[in-house]
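User: Hi! I have a protein structure encoded as tokens and I'd like to know what sequence might fold into it. I'm fairly new to this, so please keep things simple.
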């Protein structure tokens, strides 16, 4: 009897998780996924050279975030003054020798990214033998709640089935 209750609880949890993903909280592309709260959405990636490595895999942001022209891959996005953008890039072959920064160590710092004057945070992780970089940029007027939200979105990084 105990097993039946546990199985039912597990099934309920799986169904709840699937329902949450169906509501758009799981934003994914190119085999990666981020969980984002209401008000966040996928952003069309900025143009990149064909065969670029690393490649931008997924960009999510708050209302008003969008791609802009820039020579800098990560900061090729307009970040709303009170908003945020998370950019996921990945390398095809492992980059070997890169110092990896865990998601848990992400902290905002000024001028983290070339071509972006605002605050940013970065993490580098390996999943299934592939290197990924998670980049967070927040606007100058982003409050503590928005900052926490942006960091949580980046820390939700997971691999997902390819689209």
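Assistant: Happy to help. Inverse folding works backwards from shape to sequence: for each of the 163 positions I chose a residue that suits the local structure. Here it is:
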């Amino acid at each position: 009897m105990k097993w039946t209750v546990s199985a039912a609880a597990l099934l309920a949890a799986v169904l709840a998780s699937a329902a949450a993903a169906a509501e758009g909280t799981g934003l994914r592309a190119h085999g990666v996924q981020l969980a984002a709260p209401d008000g966040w959405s996928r952003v069309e990636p900025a143009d990149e050279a064909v065969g670029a490595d690393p490649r931008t895999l997924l960009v999510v942001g708050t209302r008003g975030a969008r791609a802009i022209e820039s020579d800098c891959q990560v900061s090729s996005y307009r970040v709303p003054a009170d908003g945020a953008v998370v950019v996921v890039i990945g390398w095809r072959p492992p980059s070997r020798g890169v110092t990896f920064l865990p998601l848990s160590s992400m902290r905002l710092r000024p001028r983290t990214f070339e071509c972006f004057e605002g605050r940013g945070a970065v993490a580098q992780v390996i999943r299934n033998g592939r290197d990924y970089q998670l980049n967070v940029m927040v606007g100058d007027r982003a409050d503590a709640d928005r900052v926490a939200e942006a960091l949580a979105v980046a820390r939700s990084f997971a691999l997902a089935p390819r689209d």
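A useful reference point when you look it over: Residues 1-24 have pLDDT under 50 and may be disordered. Feel free to ask if any position seems puzzling.
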